[in-house]
Amino acid sequence: MDYLDYLESEAIYVLRETAAQFKRPVLLFSGGKDSICMVHLCKKAFYPAKFPFPLMHIDTGHNFPEALQFRDALVKEMNENLIVRMVEDTMIEKGIKDNDTKFPSRNAFQSQTLLDAIAEFQFDACIGGARRDEEKARAKERVFSLRDKTGKWDPNNQRPEVWNVVNGFLKEGENMRVFPLSNWTELDVWAYIDRENISLPSLYFSHDRECIQTPDGYLMNVNEFISISPTDKIVTEKVRYRTVGDMTCTAAVPSTAITVTEIINELKRTKVSERGATRIDDRISDAGMEDRKKEGYF
Amino acid sequence: MKLVRLFTAGNVDDGKSTLIGRLLLDSGAVSTDIIHGLTKSKGQGDEEGVIDLAFLTDGLRSERALGITIDVAYKYFSTQKNKYIIADTPGHWEYTRNMFTGASLCDVAIILIDVTIGITEQTKRHALIVSLLGVNQVVFAINKMDLKQYAEAVFEAIKIDLITLSEELKINTPTILPMSALKGENVVAKSTFLSWFSGPTLFDYLENTVHHQEHKNELLRFQVQYLIHSDGLIGYAGRIEHGVLRIGQEVLVVATGEQKCIQNIIYNNQSVHLAKAGMCVSIYFDNQTELERGDVVSAITFPPKIGNRFAATICWMSEISSDLKMEYVLQIGAIKVLAKLVIIHEKCIKNRNISDDLLLNDIANVVIETQNDIVFDRYEDAKATGSFILIDTDLCTTVAAGIIS
């Protein structure tokens, strides 16, 4: 088998195991390329039946409109069930205001909305498209990753994951996070998108965009959620997005790639990692992701 | 492109994480922002601007603080030929269970030995685990050759000991390589200091050696993982672990002894005539067939065994010691059954405490009895149906992993 066949097979195995071992799984879906691949894999895993679980998006309110449109169109086309929970609702309920910073991040509040939704629907397994190559704390996480009652990940006490035997037993209130794409890299995802002819939001391909350039060189989309000062230089550049997160923390990369093949060639030449190129939220501290995961972040 | 899974083992401070860092760095797999992060997060009092290769895999704050690897870190790199998945497993004796986790699915084991120390108890422990798990390609990397002035005689002396150890543990034709991971000698690039060594670099070895085990063709193992209901039909979804499935083939449903004809195979959203090991498929029989999750399908020849008692070698993974009176859940793939440990024979690897019970990180030969008959194989015949975990259902923890002998 080719390596992509192997990765696909492993992901399908994990999806079916999740459907078999858990009572109420859910697929987290954002409209980004990894979660679009997840949907594609689910179709294969459960063909010809519908998905045995709903999709859910934790919407920060800071998403790119292109990603949301794509999300809604895909769900409609597949006739699957999508749950949307808004981070804004959590913020209103708890009286939380956005940080008064240039790029106000809702990362910290997103985990709370996710945990509330897990409690609301009593989900016992949340499937996500996170990959180990994204970040060094993720590189340590199991495919089936246990979270305690408060959603916390304990990196020093993870369940052994031997062969393909999955211990899906949970104590009251615990839940499992499931990462079928654990062993995929950014390039693997693109090679798969290419091979399977998977459609993506237009954001991923080169387009003209109004951006401000941050002092450390990031190109941030001009939008109503960031505060623009008179000293900011606004430029229109040919860019694309390598990851699609919030508009407040995801940077565009200069690119002229308009096809998947061109993107793959561009990635093979690049010297900067996916999150390094695009995520200003990871740069706050060296253990940024580890800390957020311990608080219940995906 | 082929997929190759490898893992590194060895004593703490033998340089496992450094070796992986070196492989990633010299093969061009590391991005510049990550290299920047490695220089930035170096501990206090260290030389400014020096890259610590180990930090490429030691991703947790506590690991960086302690300077050791606690849990398995997975890293990836690709060449024209292969995509590599590397599991960096901890060297500390207390983390033997994590090493077991990292090693269970690997094609290639790299066991590091510090040339200034030679073979240790931990080398033997790791070699034994590799042998038990049936990892088919084993590399002993004799590291830190720079500290012995790259002397051939020192290498040869350790090599002789390793060959003896391999013979004892039935590790077939191990590859023994000298290197310095820190200095990058004989990892990716050939070393001028090691000009006396005619063998390959580690990287050449990985690129040019055949990595996938051939299985007996006549063996067929398919376990029902999930039932897909649609339009009044039931698709039995699962992965083919061994052998091939064909439409029209007569197969054995092992638990009931029934022979059934495969009417359809779905792979990749379409019907296929033939499917091979490694593929996740769903198979269809006639309407009278009722299978459940966990049922094993095999060829009529070479079926698996059925029984409620078998010998196994297990690695104990819980802080709570084993209890002969306790009922555990034994899980083989999708099969779950209540089971007890009935006999603990000699321990292959002992915990430092003397006890008849099994303690964390002990590896021992045992006899297990299950409440009902189950379908199983010897691990050396079929890994998927020959390996299992034991679960403590009160705590929901995996207390042991084992292979059936």
How would you describe this protein?
The complex is a heterodimer of chains A (298) and B (405). With 298 residues, chain A is an alpha/beta fold. Chain A has two domains: 3-187 and 287-294, Rossmann fold (3-Layer(aba) Sandwich); 198-283, no CATH class. In chain A, 35% of the residues lie in helices and 15% in strands. Chain A has helices at residues 3-21, 33-46, 65-78, 87-94, 107-121, 186-196, 260-269, 274-278, 288-294; strands at 25-28, 55-59, 82-86, 125-127, 144-147, 175-178, 207-213, 219-221, 234-240, 253-254. In chain A, the strands form two sheets. Chain A has a six-stranded mixed sheet, with helices on both faces. In chain A, strands 8-7-9-10 form a four-stranded antiparallel sheet, with no helix packed on it. The longest helix of chain A is centred in the N-terminal third of the chain and has 19 residues, at 3-21. In chain B, a hairpin with a 2-residue loop joins strand 13 and strand 14. Chain B is α+β, with helices and mostly antiparallel strands. Chain B is 18% helix and 36% strand. Chain B has eight helices and 23 strands. The model of chain B is unreliable at 40-49 (pLDDT under 50). In chain B, the strands form four sheets. In chain B, strands 7, 8, 9, 11, 12, 13, 14, 16 and 17 form a nine-stranded antiparallel sheet that branches. The chains are: A alpha/beta (298), B alpha+beta (405). At the A-B interface, helix 1 and helix 2 of A face helix 2, strand 2, strand 3, helix 4 and strand 8 of B.
